[in-house]
Amino acid sequence: MNPFYWLGASAAAILLAMLVYALLNAEDL
Questions:
Q1: Dist CA 12 CA 28 (whole Å)
Q2: What would the pLDDT profile of 1-29 be if each residue is shown by its tens digit?
Q3: Distance of CA 9 to CAs 12, 13, 29, Å?
């Protein structure tokens, strides 16, 4: 497999997790 594919997939997963975390924090405030 292409290593850049895994790099992009992991980066997208991290960004998605950060987005969900930010939305949850916004609901708590």
A1: 25
A2: 788 999 999 999 999 999 999 999 987 76
A3: 5, 6, 31
